[in-house]
## 1
Amino acid sequence: MIPIALPSLSENEADAAREAVLSGWVSQGPQVAAFEREFAALVGAPFACAVSNCTTALHLALAALNIGPGDEVITASHSFIATANCIRYSGATPVFVDIDPDSYNIDPELVAEAITPRTRAIIAVHQMGMPCDLSSLTALAARHGVVLIEDAACAAGSEIRMNGAWERIGKPHGTIACFSFHPRKVITTGEGGMLTTGDAELDRKFRLLRQHGMSVPDTVRHGSPQVIFEDYLVVGFNYRMTDIQAAVGRKQLQRLAELIGHRRALASRYAELLGNIDGLRLPFEPPWARSNWQSYCVRLPDRLDQRTVMQHLLDRGIATRRGIMCSHREAPYADAAPRHGLRQSELAQDRSILLPIYSQMSENDQDRVVDVLLAELDS
Ligand SMILES: *Cc1c(COP(=O)(O)O)cnc(C)c1O
């Protein structure tokens, strides 16, 4: 069986987890602090704050910006449902706009048309690791006085060329970027998330809000020769990452470049082997973007039925997934008719399939996927 994805975890990560378990401090502590420093250095961000997952990271981003009832947040429906849900958690209204059919990312021109006096923020998703058009989006956000938040759940290690230089997603380009370390992403801590920002005040708020609004963290009280009493300054949350997870994350971070190298090689090999097939559309990487290839998404020719193709591949031992979901089609969003057309989002969900890609994938296995897919396309 060839899986759709597979985390790359070794004895190194297992040893790190073991050490953290035996250290006597297993919740948010020194490993989390080190993971934050190393992640910030890697992406070039002034501040990085670790949390329990990317969904809570997105929620904290909106909470720290005081976005709430009456506010509108523009985002893609064509994303994992957590992107839209975090807007609902805050009490604000998600406003969905359509995607560009080539990049599967939010279309900046459609974002511009969707801005109203109530718009407070844009959440732009770097879908499947492919960077959004951040030059247009940051300019647009500045022009309208709204905040740009990057849902970089899938985009650890992805790069974008800004003003002539390659920079990692998370540097940050928008005001806040949120990452996921779920096993479906390129590096994993089991569950985990990270917020990066260049704004010291926002970083302070993330740290307060992730830990119950506590004025003095437990780590500080634990190490103090003086008795310290803490206060609870706001209604916060428990969105902490554990030191066990962070210890694993630090090892994964050391291997990020290597893991992405394998994925890039597999992506160019797919492009070689699947190029020039009539009606099959391969992912498009703009000249200013370098994807980490978290997923490899192809669009099927119109004559083929998505579910049938996926079933035939599964019957031959190859797992696939359909195109990224559309949140506006799910029950929690059924009560609000979308304000803007979402035709490209729906087509991307209905006409695309994700092919297996993971760093340990062998060329043999990739050949098998290609052979079975080509046979399907010939039928
Ligand atoms: C995976 C994902 C999330 C959620 O990340 P978790 O860490 O699982 O909470 C949010 N947005 C996008 C685009 C994702 O792919």
## 2
Amino acid sequence: MKTEASQLIESLISRAEGELADIFSRIDQNEIIRTRQILDVFRSHAVSYRHFAPSSGYGYDDIGRDTLEKIYADIFHTEAALMRPQIASGTAALSLTLFGLTRPGDHLISATGTPYDTLTGIIGTGAVPPPGSLKEQGRSYTEIPLREDGKIDTAAVEAAIRPETTLIIAQRSRGYAWRKSLMPEDFQELADRIHQSHPGILLMVDNCYGEFVREKEPTDFGADLCVGSLIKNPGGGIAPTGGYVVGPEKSVERIAWRLTAPGLGRELGSYAASYRPYYQGLFMAPHTTAQALKTAILTARVLEGLGCEASPGSAEPRADIIQAVKLHQPERLVAFCQGIQTASPVDSMALPEPWAMPGYEDPVVMAAGTFVAGASIELSADGPMREPYTVYMQGALTYAHGRIALAEALNRMHAGGTMKLPGDE
Ligand SMILES: *Cc1c(COP(=O)(O)O)cnc(C)c1O
């Protein structure tokens, strides 16, 4: 009986793979383009073993760190970059950026509606803003929702600009919302408008989950700054921790002053371990991102075939690595996550159950069996326990693993009696 289900699932997956051949081949093409770009930048900086060496103390003239930052700037086509293990997460990179680029009295605008959950603490929205938030420290804030068609409402953002507006923030990824992610080119119109009529106002894009998915990045389409996490795409599954900011020299310097000290900035900061994982991770990033994309697309296609709605749909162009699927039943959501967890290389013996997480309205079920704790470029899945029981899945270091884990998740849903397969009965 069990073998029978496994065979059904295997044939569903291989059929989907066959149908996806053209889409997968476009992902391979993009991987080649981005790998060549990175390779060219590595060559132009003559990367060599000496760049991997650890440093100590103040870290003055740390060539591994300084070269990595030049490489990041080159890849994003910006003047400068801050790329540090000392930046604790993507949220920490965003916090440094928002505090670094605004002063008390300044006004900032979110051009893509309510930002990712962890930003509510930084900005100080929400019922009880934490001490030290931007709002507590004298910044005002306006949120402009995305248009009905999912794009930025440039006119509304422009209308919200005040004399004291200094920063506009925008988020490329859907995060954990049922909306379309934005393409790098989707920032062009807003960037052009503010640069023409309001020089001095900066556009920062939260680029989390978007890096290397397309041929170009938002900074290639007018965004002044991009910010992200190194335990997502650009760390390639290899970087152990950290965050990055790329942008104009003067902005990056101000942000670095927040990280270390005004006047010292990027000159300070040693790292007692090797920088090799940062170089190697970046070099691997287009490949790892491609593995995650293929896993997401395969998952979408197979679940669509079983009557679920996927966003993005399996044939839609992608701007990030997140896959959302409405599973419609609480037992399915839990079984899916449990299947992903038991098919993980780490903590396969854990069985995720929904739990009340601080900061979330409903219990959340989460699967993550990752080498780097919390790394979501590695295969992970989670969802809030509420209608329509949407699972958000992202990552996979290898497509083979993504494929195996998907089969296991389907098997678990089927065994629990919540997911019928064609050919059942
Ligand atoms: C993950 C993420 C963040 C925060 O990054 P952490 O590393 O988890 O702090 C911010 N914005 C978006 C869109 C993200 O996906």
